[in-house]
Design brief:
By secondary structure, this protein is an alpha/beta fold. It has one domain. Helix content is about 30%, strand content about 25%. An eight-stranded parallel sheet has the order 13-12-10-7-6-5-2-14. The radius of gyration is 19 Å and the shape is globular. The two termini are about 35 Å apart.
Length: about 290
């Protein structure tokens, strides 16, 4: 099997590896490679190098970095053999749609602060993702997950973070079916309604000198002060590792995605089913 080499490894958009699969990823790093199944063609398997000679930076995605931090502290020499580590940290308002995130806001902000101190501000991207509006079945009361947005942004600003990456939930058919089966009805917002909501959120963010950057939301980029997100940003990673790397658009993502090319080593099935089990999940949450 040919060995695929990528300077940036994404770990992972498809599931929360830092929260649940650090033992697995540690084994794969020590082995020096990982076999990745194409989620759209399971017969296609790529062997991806995890050698520090080939990988310049890991990009870690999570809602809870507690286990990642613990694993890093116990394996510092191994992790530091790689030039860089970058973090996509999602912290939304606690919600009934995220019942299985069993760590408090305070603990997650402690993790966020630790990551910044250990790896620098440029290594951390803060995400409020996704924003979702919904109601309970049989009720006309519209709910959302924005009730603590202002207090969260205030805490983010105190850590000197200057950007928030966000998106509105895309109501795929599987998202609609899952939420309905759990007693909720997701609301597919119009562009005008999103604009109205963003007017309020922009005021809050501007009060704390934080920019709002939209992830895969091209219809929102015409709004003044909403910028395109580049979640995996080769320019930031270059500053982080002090080394030049190729800068190519990631054509494997949605065409509206602003990310630079990386290789994602996660999956959707088997061990990769995410145990956060969020009701709005786009991927494949665990059943329990």
């Amino acid at each position: 099997m040919n060995l695929v080499k990528s300077p940036i490894i994404s770990c992972s958009r498809r599931t929360d590896i830092p929260a649940f699969l650090m033992g697995w990823v540690l084994e794969r790093i020590k082995e020096g490679y990982v076999d990745v199944v194409n989620p759209f063609n399971r017969k296609q398997v790529s062997r991806v190098s995890l050698s520090s000679k080939d990988v310049k930076c890991f990009v870690w995605w999570s809602k809870n970095f507690g286990e990642w931090i613990k694993t890093y502290k116990n394996n510092k020499e191994l992790f530091k053999s790689f030039r860089g580590h970058s973090f996509q940290f999602t912290i939304n308002s606690p919600s009934e749609l995220e019942n299985n995130i069993n760590v408090s806001l305070d603990e997650r902000f402690e993790q966020l602060e630790w990551l910044i101190k250990e790896f620098s501000l440029i290594a951390v991207n803060y995400r409020y993702d996704p924003i979702i509006f919904y109601n309970a079945k049989g009720s006309n009361q519209i709910k959302n997950n924005l009730d603590k947005f202002k207090s969260i942004i205030e805490r983010v600003a105190k850590l000197r973070i200057k950007e928030v990456i966000f998106s509105f939930a895309t109501i795929y058919s599987k998202v609609n079916s899952r939420m309905n089966s759990r007693g909720y009805v997701p609301i597919n917002l119009t562009v005008n309604k999103k604009r109205e909501i963003l007017e309020r959120l922009l005021e809050i963010c501007q009060d704390f000198e934080i920019k709002m950057k939209a992830c895969c939301q091209p219809d929102l980029l015409e709004i003044e002060d909403i910028e395109q997100a580049h979640c995996i940003d080769a320019y930031k990673i270059e500053k982080l590792i002090n080394e030049k790397i190729p800068k190519q658009k990631d054509t494997g993502q949605r065409k509206e995605c602003g990310c630079f090319r990386s290789k994602d080593i996660g999956g959707y099935t088997g061990i990769f089913r995410c145990r956060h089990n969020c009701d709005y999940c786009y991927a494949s949450p665990a059943k329990k």
